[in-house]
Prior knowledge:
Elements: H1 7-21, H2 23-38, E1 43-44, H3 46-58, H4 68-84, E2 88-89, E3 94-96, H5 103-116, H6 120-124, H7 136-148, E4 153-157, E5 160-164, H8 170-180
Antiparallel strand pairs: 1-3, 2-3, 4-5
Amino acid sequence: xxxxxxxxxLTRVLYFHAARADALLHDTVxxxxxxxxxxxxxxxxxxxxxxxxxxxAAEGKTAGYWSEPTLVRVAQGLMATLRDFGVLQxxxxxxxxxxxxxVEAFACIVFYLHQEQPSGxxxxxxxxWRLFFLSPQAVEHFFVEAQQRHLLEYYxxxxxxxxxxxxxxxxxxxxxxxxxxx
Length: 182
């Protein structure tokens, strides 16, 4: 965090880890906002969040019963958090923000995903990319750009995809990424 890593990149990496740590935040993006994005919708209302939250609560997917005021507070909190992470924009009227993902942040995130899922083909279509509204084609573009910047090695021949990194540990890779951006 003390290095010259792009601020926007750090925000995206922190967002990624926050969404992975908080199932409600993750599901709000991947199950509510992703479909809105896929439909080309940019405006997001409180009702867009409230309706699925109420359904999840009724289906027992929450820790317990949530009253209407609780649902509203949770929806407002989710929208504020997503605004703070740059996923939504607007103070009163929220809309999906154009998702900018610096290639350094992509490389950092794919390093973590690669530790869990070493298959290159599966990384290309990993469901976590929905957090950034990225299609497999956009992910492949990021892999090519990261390869060109020597942040990782990406080789594709048909359905065989090989991805390697210059280091084995997350700490070493983070250090390498921040030193490269100096």
